[in-house]
Amino acid sequence: MSNKLIAISGDKGGVGKSSLTALLSEWMLYRDRRIKVIDADPNQTTQTWIDKCAEMGREISNSKANITIVDTAGTSGSSLIKYIRNADLIIVPFKPHVADLEVVIGWFLSIKATLQEKVAFVPNMLSKTKEQATGVEEAKKIVAEEDTGRILPGLVERKAVYPPLLNGSAVNFFKGKLDRNTRLETELLFTEIDKILGLS
Q: What angle do CA 74, 76, 77 make, to 5 degrees?
């Protein structure tokens, strides 16, 4: 398999980039893939997760990795980072609220067309509200109008499931005891990502 670079990005903080980075990393490891995880965010939330897992006896990154996953900073100018320019896939989590959507879509429209083609939006921290449903539909509409990028299946806000992931664990997330809905939604999302990258 050729080397793949996945950037978790978007010009908005607090949308779950680090959690999604850890979750995607766990998926790749669960599928017996060798990965390298880079935390390019000054907050170093993902690196802290990696360190906690190591303290529990589990190494996340592999020196012989052929898949690199990068957690980028949620600040202005992130589209210029070398990881974004060289990425095979740019995953952009977003909370489908009006204010968040304006920032994320504004970032998307500001980057080059060649990069827009690589963008996959992930509706994140979803709840069953009309505002969020409208936000997801608005994002789909914009992607359709631009005829580039894509919207992937989203993740529901599960405070008892996803945030604790960053506490680290000696056991892979997907080998743990997951409720049916969590397993279904995560497998749906990451199977789509596998298809995009030609890994399935």
A: 105
The pTM assigned to this predicted structure is 0.93
Task: Return the SS3 of 176.
Answer: coil
β-strands 4-8, 35-39: how paired? unpaired
- Whichever domain contains 156, its CATH number is 3.40.50.300
Contacts of 194 (CB under 8 A, 6+ apart): 31, 200
- Select from 59, 66, 69, 62 the least CA-distant residue to 25: 69
The tally of domains found in the chain comes to 1
Residue type, 150: R
pLDDT digits (tens, 9 = 90+) for 96-121: 888 788 888 888 998 899 999 999 99
Q: How many CB atoms lie within 10 A of CB 163?
A: 12
